[in-house]
Amino acid sequence: MSRRRLFLAAGFVLLACAAAAAVLPARWILAVLPGSWPLAVVDATGTLWSGSATIAVGAAAQRRTLPEPLRWRLSASGGPRLQLSHPWMGGTLDVAPGWRGVSVSAQTLRLPAAALATLDARIAAIGPDGELVVKWPAAFFGWSGRPAGATLLDVQWRNAVSALTPIRPLGDYALALKQRGPGTADLTLSTRQGPLILSGSGVLDRNHGFRFEGTAQADPKAGAEVQAALRDVLAALGPRQNNQTLLRFQ
Question: Cα separation of 87 and 105, whole Å?
Answer without folding.
Answer: 17
